[in-house]
Amino acid sequence: MANKIQICNIAISRIGARTIQSLSDNAKEARECDRHYDFARDAVLADHDWGFARKRLTLSLLTDTFSGWQYAYVYPTDCIKARKIYDGTGAYTGTSYDIDSDRVVQIGNVEYEIASSEDKDYRMILTDKESAELFYTARITDANLYSPQFISALGFRLAAELAVPIRSDSKLAQLMLDSYVRELGRARMIDANEDYKKPDEINSFVEARS
């Protein structure tokens, strides 16, 4: 199974730098991996509705009130990207990758909005749905849960972040970023094929544990 150091070394090897044994190594490669890993991981999580990172949660109601919306809910602390709100009929709202058209599509009929509190201390989800249940991509830090496609995509995304500070090569950084985009497209197709939906029905989310 993969771990953080192995993923860092995948990224490092893709830019032709020296691999590391630990993030506490006294080497530029280790310092830069430690600096950029979390950002790259969260960016890749946000870029796709990864099956292993799907989570559902009945949101906690806030006392805040806002014009135009009936309810304000706490934004989950482990939420990387809100995807959909269950509407009670089997339909969902939000965005989803459609494998047939190779594009992100808007589905469902429960509207919501992501907002910040007046003092900017916390984020909220505003909606007219009572007892709203959110489907979202969670921040998964355990690399043992990652799919092979995610690991490969993360390796390219992290390599793009490391190319300039380690190799001083902006062209290499762009090459790694382009490779990431291609790998993400491939991962989306493979990941989507792991789900099952009946013809003409909206694909449902499966609860994932973080």
Summary of the model, kept short:
The protein is α+β, with helices and mostly antiparallel strands. The protein contains 4 helices and 8 strands; from the N terminus they run ααββββββββαα.
Chart the SSEs and their pairings:
Blueprint lengths: L3 H11 L13 H19 L7 E5 L12 E4 L4 E7 L8 E5 L4 E5 L4 E5 L6 E5 L5 E6 L9 H20 L2 H23 L18
Antiparallel strand pairs: 1-8, 2-7, 3-8, 4-5, 6-7
Helix pairs in contact: 1-3, 2-3, 3-4
Describe the structure.
With 210 residues, the chain is α+β, with helices and mostly antiparallel strands. It has two domains: 4-47 and 141-192, no CATH class; 54-138, no CATH class. It has helices spanning 4-14, 28-46, 148-167, 170-192, and strands at residues 54-58, 71-74, 79-85, 94-98, 103-107, 112-116, 123-127, 133-138. The strands form three sheets. The chain has a three-stranded antiparallel β-sheet with strand order 1-8-3, with helices on one face. A hairpin with a 6-residue loop joins strand 6 and strand 7. The longest helix has 23 residues, at 170-192. Mean pLDDT is 86; it is low at 199-210.
Rg, nearest Å: 19 Å
Structural category is alpha+beta
Number of helices: 4
Task: Catalogue the unreliable spans.
Answer: 199-210
Strand content is 15-25%
Portion of residues in helices? 25-40%
Count all strands and give the number: 8
SSE order, one letter for each helix or strand: HHEEEEEEEEHH
Q: Report mean pLDDT, rounded to a whole number.
A: 86
Largest sheet: 3 strands, antiparallel
Number of domains: 2
> Alpha-carbon distance between the termini?
17 Å
Overall shape: elongated
Q: What spatial order of strands do you see in the largest sheet?
A: 1-8-3
